[in-house]
């Protein structure tokens, strides 16, 4: 039982520490942190693509493996060389998706009999936010990442408080008892 308690404490401590570090990084340096994450993903993609290419060279089976490996290498290089472009593209694609949904929702709201005004307002807000995301991707990205950072910090502090107050145990943890017949 003591081993389970120690494992839970270590798990809680690492989770709180990781959440605090990532939360602070996103709060203080949202764009730089996301650039770093994109570059790390790029390195991982590059390594994966190279492994795929080497595997093909060692055992040339299937043209798809070499084509897939080349595509992954190219994407990895783009992620490493142009993290800002990757973030901008993701933001713009999300903005376009939201814009399409907002316009579709607006059209649907026009034919509604009940709650038409609310549905139209929600769709207009979606359209405005989508346009903001498309036009000013980095500012919106920065605000969004700061909010994620704040959420991670609040969650970590809550976990820390609950971990201290509950001594690191959950309510669902089994209780060891001995049964005695009367």
UniProtKB/TrEMBL annotation:
<keyword id="KW-0812">Transmembrane</keyword>
<dbReference type="GO" id="GO:0005886">
    <property type="term" value="C:plasma membrane"/>
</dbReference>
<feature type="transmembrane region" description="Helical">
    <location>
        <begin position="37"/>
        <end position="58"/>
    </location>
</feature>
<keyword id="KW-1133">Transmembrane helix</keyword>
<feature type="transmembrane region" description="Helical">
    <location>
        <begin position="147"/>
        <end position="164"/>
    </location>
</feature>
<protein>
    <submittedName>
        <fullName>Uncharacterized membrane protein HdeD, DUF308 family</fullName>
    </submittedName>
</protein>
<feature type="transmembrane region" description="Helical">
    <location>
        <begin position="12"/>
        <end position="31"/>
    </location>
</feature>
<dbReference type="InterPro" id="IPR005325">
    <property type="entry name" value="DUF308_memb"/>
</dbReference>
<dbReference type="InterPro" id="IPR052712">
    <property type="entry name" value="Acid_resist_chaperone_HdeD"/>
</dbReference>
<feature type="transmembrane region" description="Helical">
    <location>
        <begin position="87"/>
        <end position="106"/>
    </location>
</feature>
<feature type="transmembrane region" description="Helical">
    <location>
        <begin position="118"/>
        <end position="141"/>
    </location>
</feature>
<dbReference type="Pfam" id="PF03729">
    <property type="entry name" value="DUF308"/>
</dbReference>
<keyword id="KW-0472">Membrane</keyword>
